[in-house]
Amino acid sequence: MAKKDRESKKKPQERKPEPVKEEKEYNLAREMKKTLTPIICGIIAGFLSFLATGEFRQRDAFGIIILVFLIYVQKFILPKMGVELEGKDWAGIAFLTFSSWYISWTILLNL
User: Which burial class, exposed, middle or buried, applies to 97 when counting CB atoms under 10 A from its CB (0-12, 13-18, 19+)?
Assistant: First the structure.
């Protein structure tokens, strides 16, 4: 009888429903813009860095300034293209721009 009293006292705890997070709809066009724009800007930055520095190794820092400028310009370009940016997006944008800048500039320097 004691066991029945204990079991009857134990009621299943009602769980409060967790608030449902609103998931944004996946938009392929938005993601493609967010990916291709930094790659294109990086290639442009690599080409401009090559033209600005030329044969002079003393002006390599100017090429990096061009890269940083084009990363900053994307802050204004992407919203005009209808892309909403979050804080975590900037790490990916900067990395894609840097990678394509580095690859394109290195290829142009070795021609």
Answer: buried
Rg (CA), the chain: 26
**Residue 99 near residue 67, CB atoms below 8 Å:** no
CB 100 within 8 A of CB 46: yes
**What is the distance between the alpha carbons of residues 51 and 53, in angstroms, rounded to a whole number?**
6
Locus of tokens 């769980």: 15
- State pLDDT tens for residues 74-97: 999 988 988 888 888 889 999 999
The conformational region for residue 54 under phi > 0 = left, psi -120 to 50 = alpha, else beta, is left
